[in-house]
Design a protein that fits this description.
Elements: E1 2-6, H1 11-22, E2 28-33, H2 38-50, E3 61-65, H3 73-79, E4 88-91, H4 105-121, E5 129-133, E6 146-148, H5 163-178, E7 184-189, E8 191-192, H6 207-216, E9 218-220, E10 229-230, H7 232-244, E11 252-255, H8 265-273, E12 283-285, H9 289-297, H10 311-321, H11 327-341, E13 345-347, H12 350-356, H13 364-367, H14 380-386
Parallel strand pairs: 1-2, 1-4, 2-3, 4-5, 5-7, 6-13, 7-11, 8-10, 9-12
Helix pairs in contact: 1-7, 3-4, 4-5, 6-8, 9-11, 11-14
The structure holds NADP nicotinamide-adenine-dinucleotide phosphate.
Length: about 375
């Protein structure tokens, strides 16, 4: 099998690449990588393997310099005759930013970039599978406090917390119209956070949000709402199991905790707090207090506001942040994560388990213990700027 894959310098794509490079049925892996030159692209791929000391097989892994935002990407890939023996395309790249609401880059990468890839892939002489990494979060804001099945999405009537999930939904719609149904495989991970193995996670995405919760301690969110989280190693294992499964009967699969391995913010925050003794207890309060926290950080919270009841936390924030206006940067970046965390969405994973036979994932509040020590390394302000 010859695979063309995008997003391998990212969190999930990096794990997929390493697992695929070890797979006996995989011959070549062409990786679309952004870079300044071919040498730079190769160096970036080698770094993916260096993180955990994995073997980089230069005969198997071939960098393809390119950017999904390039208008000529499709022509560029078509003219690269090396790629003609590709039988599987795995599209794991995306602009995953929650904050770029006014910036066209999210559409450019996630919608136009996908269009370029589809145009090229449809011309491949032996395309067998186009595997798209979508996201279960396309299910929208309306679906609260219940288990959601694959066939309920995409639904272009729902509203989205962030533009990123809208573009991922549009991507699925486009693929369904343009790739032959027998070739299309859509996998929809829920929230991917950390690694269940005891080593430095490839990315601090989502863990950043918990590091921020851990630092703030007074959290304006419903901490007990169900939350569907999986580790990156589980996500990669499940996707590869689906790719090679003989029993695959569906075109779309959730890769998720489902109700049996569900977690919530309160449980995860309690585990992380054990690594940070001596701070005020983590407390969950009404979401409406987020606005008051912002006003307090702006030094314009009206007298008599409810937030003043939490004077112990206000003192703690003054000590922790010094210049309290800095807290607003964290609150702005954390807000969409809190909104997701309170929706109570769980994603049914029966199809995945039945068709691959893999185990259910370990709940996040259990596996996250392995990452506890790394949370200290997270630069919460840097993460807020990148989110
Ligand atoms: N993380 C989650 O919780 C989660 C949950 C559900 C679904 N997903 C989906 O899983 C996939 C991977 O997510 P992730 O968390 O691994 O994301 P990530 O860590 O942000 O990685 C994104 C990858 O996409 C590449 N990329 C971004 N813009 C590009 C462009 N213009 N041209 C070429 N490559 C570009 C990045 O390359 P550079 O290194 O050059 O920036 C990187 O390799 C995405 O499709 C995402 O929607 C993620």
């Amino acid at each position: 099998m010859n695979i063309f894959i995008t997003g391998t310098t990212g969190f999930l794509g990096g794990e997929l690449l390493i697992e695929l490079s070890r797979h006996p049925k995989v011959d070549k892996i062409y990786c679309l990588v952004r870079g300044l030159s071919d040498e730079h692209a190769l160096l970036r791929l080698k770094q993916v393997f260096e993180l955990h000391g994995d073997f980089f097989n230069e005969k198997k892994i071939i960098p393809v310099l390119g950017n999904l935002s390039e208008n000529t990407l499709s022509e560029k890939l078509t003219s690269n005759v090396l790629l003609n023996d590709t039988d599987v395309v795995i599209h794991a790249a995306a602009n995953t930013s929650f904050s770029k609401v006014f910036d066209k880059i999210v559409e450019e990468v996630n919608i136009t970039g996908l269009e370029h890839l589809i145009r090229w892939a449809n011309k491949l002489p032996q395309l067998n599978t186009f595997l798209y990494v979508g996201t279960a979060s396309i299910s929208g804001k309306e679906n609260k406090n219940r288990v959601i099945r694959e066939e309920e999405s995409p639904n272009n009537k729902v509203h989205h917390v962030v533009k990123y999930t809208y573009t991922k939904m549009m991507g699925e719609i486009m693929l369904t119209n343009e790739i032959a149904p027998e070739k299309l495989l859509i996998v929809r991970p829920s929230i991917i956070m950390g690694d269940s193995r005891d080593w430095v996670p490839r990315s601090y995405v989502i863990l950043w949000a918990f590091a921020t919760v851990n630092l703030l301690r007074l959290i304006p969110a419903e901490g007990k709402s169900n939350l569907d989280i999986i580790s990156v190693d589980y996500a990669a294992k499940a996707i590869i199991a689906l790719l090679f499964s003989n029993r695959r009967r569906h075109r779309v699969y959730h890769i998720s905790s489902g109700s049996k391995s569900a977690t919530n913010v309160e449980k995860i925050a309690a585990v992380i707090a054990q690594f940070f003794p001596g701070l005020p207890p983590v407390k969950f309060v009404n979401f409406a207090l987020l606005k008051q926290m912002n006003l307090w950080a702006k030094k314009s919270l009206p007298k008599g506001s409810e937030l003043y009841h939490y004077d112990k936390y206000l003192e703690y924030w003054k000590e922790t942040f010094g210049d309290i206006s800095r807290m607003r940067i964290l609150l702005a970046a954390l807000a969409p994560y809190l909104e997701f965390a309170q929706m109570g969405q769980l994603f049914d994973n029966v199809k995945l388990i039945e068709d691959t036979g893999i185990d259910l994932p370990v709940p996040a509040h259990i596996y996250i213990k392995s990452s506890g020590n790394y949370i200290k390394n997270i630069d919460v302000f840097g993460g807020a700027a990148e989110s």
